[in-house]
Amino acid sequence: MPRSVNSVAAKARRKKVLKQAKGQFGRRKNVHTVAKNSVEKGLTYAYRDRRAKKRTFRSLWITRINAGAREYGMSYSVLIGKLAEKNIAINRKTLADLAMNHPEAFKAVLEEAAAK
Fold first, then answer.
1. Other C-beta atoms lying within 10 Å of the C-beta of residue 66
2. How far apart are CA 29 and CA 34, in angstroms?
3. Which CA distances in Å does 65 have to 3, 48, 78, 106?
């Protein structure tokens, strides 16, 4: 009885890895063993950085809010504290957008937070 090998599936697996390695430099794009390592590493970075991206954007928003608030003599921490105290539920992404693109609306939010 002849030996049975599933070369169709094996070739498909290798082809899938090489397709994912498309655009890489040198042997990474055309040697299966090297491409496999490179693709696995790339997928690991992609998974990690999808989470890191959220942290990076939050940090950017906080920086923008702080810069906008300091124009009116208030720090970021004081602003967030006063917003929480007044039960003004507005997220950092929206606040940062207001600070950057709609300074008059941002000023209104600041005044509302600072009102006694």
1. 17
2. 8
3. 68, 27, 11, 9
What domain range is 110 assigned to?
10-114
Establish if 2 belongs to a structural domain: no
The CA-atom distances, in angstroms, between 116 and each of 71, 81, 85 are 20, 14, 11
* Phi, psi (degrees; rounded to nearest 5) at 89: -90, 95
**pLDDT, tens digit, for every residue of 56-86?**
999 999 999 999 999 999 999 999 999 999 9
pLDDT of residue 1: 80
Distance CA 10, CA 22 (A): 19
Query: What CATH number has the domain bearing residue 28?
Result: 1.10.1900.20
Among candidate residues 23, 34, 26, 3, the one with its CA nearest the CA of residue 14: 34
Give a yes or no: residue 1 inside a domain.
no
